[in-house]
């Protein structure tokens, strides 16, 4: 009779899920209110104009506009510059 030994159990084979951190929208990209710009642990980037910070340090847009990254000496800041409203031409009657 053919015999096959029982397979041993493995203690390996586990891994944690990735955290999906980092910049999600880059400089010059268009954003809507609520769009996530940066996911981070700690305050690596600070919130600038048109941006708010969530409980887990996530930066998100609060206005329509374009993303602008600013790097000063020791501070990195993220802004959302609002899209300028174009004047509507008046119609001649």
Automatic annotation (TrEMBL):
Residues 1-20 are annotated as: Disordered. GO terms for cellular component: ribonucleoprotein complex; ribosome. GO terms for biological process: translation. GO terms for molecular function: structural constituent of ribosome. Keywords: Ribonucleoprotein, Ribosomal protein. PROSITE patterns: RIBOSOMAL_L27 (PS00831). InterPro entries: Ribosomal_bL27, Ribosomal_bL27_CS. HAMAP family: Ribosomal_bL27. Belongs to the bacterial ribosomal protein bL27 family. This is Large ribosomal subunit protein bL27.
């Amino acid at each position: 009779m053919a015999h096959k030994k029982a397979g041993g159990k493995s203690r390996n084979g586990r891994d944690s899920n990735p955290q999906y951190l980092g910049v999600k929208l880059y400089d010059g990209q268009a954003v809507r209110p609520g769009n996530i710009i940066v996911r981070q642990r700690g305050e690596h980037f600070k919130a600038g104009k048109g941006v708010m910070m969530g409980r887990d340090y996530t930066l998100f847009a609060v206005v329509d506009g374009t993303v602008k990254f600013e790097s000063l000496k020791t501070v990195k800041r993220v802004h959302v510059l609002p899209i300028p409203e174009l004047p509507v031409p008046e119609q001649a009657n």
